[in-house]
Amino acid sequence: MKRTTVSADETLLESVHAIARQEKRSFASTVRTALEEFVNRRCAARRLPSFAGMGRSGQRDISSRTEDLLCRPYGKSSASKPAKTRTSGGA
After folding, report:
1. pTM given for the model
2. Rounded mean pLDDT for each run of 10 residues along the chain, 91 residues in total
């Protein structure tokens, strides 16, 4: 563990001392816990949601082909050609 010095508002420090007394802990232990909780909250807010990347296609050029991808018929790959339909001669 490394020792450090922190400047803080007197009212804030009094509040930390009060919390430490209520929890029957040392001032240093209370500050360490507060710092850990602060850092964990900040890191959690920056994490991607668990579902991020689920739809990963493995293709790296999608952003450069957006028009092609969005304009083609749904369910068809860009390699497939539209099926030709036969029409009957009479009718």
Report:
1. 0.49
2. 93 97 97 93 73 71 72 60 54 50
